[in-house]
């Protein structure tokens, strides 16, 4: 099952230097999750600090557990929303 995660940096609680200090370890763990097939696609947000990630997991709890391995999530530096996705039916056969 796929999920969309949308995160926002908690800039009201953490300084840019706090995020910068974890940038490399965050990227390294994101690469590991990608290589495991968990992260399918990832984008930085253009409106505010944060990311949008499409992930593959069996449950929302698995998504939470695996995201918690990311240093910024582990330290509660991101607000994360998890949205379960389902296939778009409009591309399937027409219903009669």
Can you give the mean pLDDT?
Answer: 96
Number of helical segments with 4 or more residues: 3
CATH superfamily: Dimeric alpha+beta barrel
Helical content stands at 25-40%
Structural Rg: 15 Å
Total E-strand runs: 4
Straight-line distance between termini: 28 Å
Q: Quickly count the domains.
A: 1
User: Sheet bearing the most strands, described?
Assistant: 4 strands, antiparallel
Task: Write the SSE topology.
Layout: E1 2-9, H1 16-35, E2 39-44, E3 51-56, H2 60-67, H3 71-74, E4 78-84
Antiparallel strand pairs: 1-3, 1-4, 2-3
Write up what this structure looks like.
This protein is α+β, with helices and mostly antiparallel strands and about 100 residues long. The protein contains three helices and four strands; from the N terminus they run E-H-E-E-H-H-E. Strand 2 and strand 3 form a beta hairpin. It is elongated, with a radius of gyration of 15 Å. The two termini are about 30 Å apart.
Which descriptors would you attach to this protein?
96 residues, Alpha-Beta Plaits, 4-stranded antiparallel sheet, alpha+beta
Q: What would a concise description of this structure say?
A:
The protein is α+β, with helices and mostly antiparallel strands.
